[in-house]
Amino acid sequence: MNDRWFLWLAVVSYAVSGVLTLYRLRRSQASSATNSLNYATMLAGFAAHTAFLYARGQIVQRCPLTNAFETTIFIMWAAVLFYLLIGPAYRVSFLGAFTAPVVLVIALIALLGLDDTPHGASANRSPWVDFHAAIAILACGAFALAFVTGLMYLIQERQLKSRKLTSSFLLLPSIEQLEVINFRLILLGFMMLTAGMVGGVVSYKIVGHWTVPKITWAVGAWLAYATIVTGRWWQDWRGKRLVQFSMVLFVLVLVTYWVVSRLGSFHGGPP
Amino acid sequence: VNLLLVGLNHRTAPVAVRERLAFAPAKLGEATCNLLGVAQVQEAAILSTCNRVEIYSLTAQPDEAAPAIRQFLHHHHRLTESVDAHLYELRDADCVRHLWEVVCGLDSMVLGETEIFGQVKNAYAAAQLAGATGMALNRLFQKAFAGAKQIRTQTGIARGSTSVGNVAVDLAEKIFRELKPCTVMVVGTGEISEATAKALSSRGAGTLLVCSRTQERAEALAGQLGGRTISYDDWPANFPIVDIVISATAAPHPIITREKLLPLMKLRRQRPLFLIDLAVPRDVERACGELENVYLYDMDDLQTIAQENRAARERELAAAHRLIAQHMAHYLQWFAANRAALAARRRLAPTLQTPAIAT
User: Facing residues of B183 across strands?
Assistant: First the structure.
């Protein structure tokens, strides 16, 4: 499909962004110019990414969430969107340098490994269906970026614990800041996931089909993230363990989603 | 005309000599003016710090000006014995290169230190205010300042802290989001623990608690940094509110052990804890560092990092010199092109009159 070329363009931009900034990180060259360069290339990638989703939307005549490939690409789009929004606000140096490779790898897995057969428009349409799907996707985007901050946390934590500090150590944000952003993203994602599930219930009442794997997947993910949120609030769960837990959870949610969607269309037939 | 530098630094002169040649900041302007007119010195600037005294000048007669400036130094400071053996003289390209190296901190005792940058700026400002600088020195200093900033960001010459106290602050900034809400507890006073507390406080650490077996010393440090003292026996009770502990007691055995710390971390609700153990023998059991959210650094760790940072700076020397050579070439080109014009610009007699010495 021709629209996939847009996606390859986005992938190349993200690759350029990642390679450039990681190279500079190794050379310990941190400056506002580095961050701006990273941001600009990410923005270019995001533009191509958006162009893909738009083109695909034109083809399938709806929000392009008709198969696992499209959904995964949409999640990565949301992750980049969150990066572009919170990166400058929190002044998290090198967040982009870590976002780019993560998005890149997942997008490549999707491009090379996931079945991409678009489903046509469904007769039984309700805006609630698109709403609940889109907001759940945004939630996953927030979780993806939380995964990125978690990755940065683990690197910084490891350096501090081992007492072996490379010069790039000085460029990464403090672990406390990374932990706070990590949790805020998870909280944001959790709230959106909750909204998405409410939307799902409403759309079920209107459209009326569902599958056991999908419901299990959604409820499982929601419960797991609810555990993180409550644990942090009421059990003083902090630091490395919580970050690791949230990272494993994200990978699990993504992979099980791919598996679940292979078991049949996510919504038990063309939605 | 030529650029001429006469001076001494920590490499050529012991502190006993350097302190006798130091210029009081208040008298810098006057002294600079007195230099003008001495053996056709057209422009001059005096740089005086605890590690160096250097006189930069522009003169049409360097062969006469050099001994005259030496004599000026002797007269001005009323020296009875000669310091000639400690003084060096550099001309033109060598003089320019030297200034660049000084401004970039390459000629400093601690390689790449940045304090010298401000000191040179002040020296230049004083000379400029006194009307002692002209086209040649103005351009020389301004280009050096701009270039030094560039060299500091493009090379790693000033990167990383090189003292134990500052390394500890760097680490604290990589653990905590901000130092402002952090509470620092100093257990046991001593030179290094006080220096570390000061470094943390100067970078914004909020609250300071001091406890020491010697009450006076604790009070002195608390008073100096706006903290408060607590009784030596009370320090474990304060643990829940503390974020950074600087420990430097003379205790023969570890005073903070894993068993003691484990329940305290619960009370702290697992907030990150930074333990800085400056005592020898050590105050904190090594196993404490294995606890989650606890970051333990002892004297050796901090010194190793400081040493590595120094070594890393040294590895950047070649790159810094390369950049200096590039920047210098521009200035020297300009200098050569404008030599005639500079020579023609005889300065008017300085405003703050009368040469202090008759040559």
Answer: B207
- Contact between A238 and B174 using a beta-carbon 8 Å cutoff: no
Interface predicted TM-score of the whole assembly (ipTM), two decimals: 0.82
Q: Which residue has the tokens 């890393």?
A: B312
Q: Could you tell me if B100 lies within 8 Å of chain A, comparing CB atoms? A: no
Task: Kindly list the residues from chain B whose CB atom is less than 8 angstroms away from the CB atom of residue A152.
Answer: none
The number of angstroms, rounded, from the C-alpha of B249 to the middle of its chain's C-alpha atoms is 29
Q: Give B101-114 pLDDT, tens digit per residue.
A: 999 999 998 888 88
CA nearest neighbour of A271 among A133, A113, A114, A77 = A133
Q: Identify the DSSP state of A152.
A: H
Sequence-ordered alpha helix ranges (H) in chain A: 4-26, 32-60, 68-90, 95-113, 127-162, 175-207, 212-234, 239-262
Phi, psi of A232 (to 5 degrees): -70, -40
Which pLDDT band, with edges at 50, 70 and 90, does B359 fall under?
Answer: very low
Distance from C-alpha of B84 to C-alpha of B6, rounded to nearest angstrom: 10
CB < 8 Å to B286, chain A: none
Vertex B205: Cα angle to A181 and B234 (nearest 5): 110
Put simply, the answer to whether A160 touches B295 (Cβ < 8 Å) is yes
Q: Which two tokens stand for residue A44?
A: 């270019």
Per residue in B156-192, pLDDT tens? 888 888 888 889 998 999 999 889 999 999 998 888 8
Reported residue count of chain B is 359
Q: Is any Cβ of chain B less than 8 angstroms from the Cβ of A169?
A: yes
The question of whether B95 is a catalytic residue gets the answer no
Distance CA B151, CA B318 (A): 12
Q: What is the pLDDT of residues B24-52, one digit of tens each?
A: 888 888 888 888 877 788 899 999 998 99
- Specify whether the CB–CB gap between B182 and B176 falls below 8 A: yes
Q: Report the alpha-carbon distance of residue B116 to residue B104 in Å, rounded.
A: 8
User: What is the maximum span of chain B, computed from C-alpha positions, in angstroms?
Assistant: 80
Q: Closest Cα to residue A78, out of A116, A37, A134? A: A134
Q: Which residues contact A160 (CB under 8 A, 6 or more apart)?
A: A175, B171, B174, B175, B295
Distances (CA, A) of A166 to A148, B139, B160, B305: 20, 38, 10, 10
Whether A193 contacts A228, CB under 8 Å: no
- The whole-angstrom separation of Cα A238 and Cα A235 is 9
Q: Which two tokens stand for residue B118?
A: 């401000």
Counting every residue written for chain A, the total comes to: 271
Q: Is B22 left (phi over 0), alpha (psi -120 to 50) or beta?
A: beta
**Cis amide leading into A88 (omega within 30):** no
Chain A residue closest in CA terms to B273: A176
By CB atoms closer than 10 A (0-12, 13-18, 19+), residue B38 is buried
- Inter-chain touch B174–A28, beta carbons under 8 Å: no
* Residue closest to A128 by CA, chosen among A196, A52, A39: A196
Helix (H, G, I), strand (E, B) or coil at B206: coil
Helix axes B317-337, B135-154, angle to 10 degrees: 160
Which of B266, B271, B179 minimizes the C-alpha distance to A238? B271
Show the CA angle centred on residue A148, arms to residues A251 and A30, nearest 5°: 155
Q: How far is it, in rounded angstroms, from Cα B127 to Cα A249?
A: 65
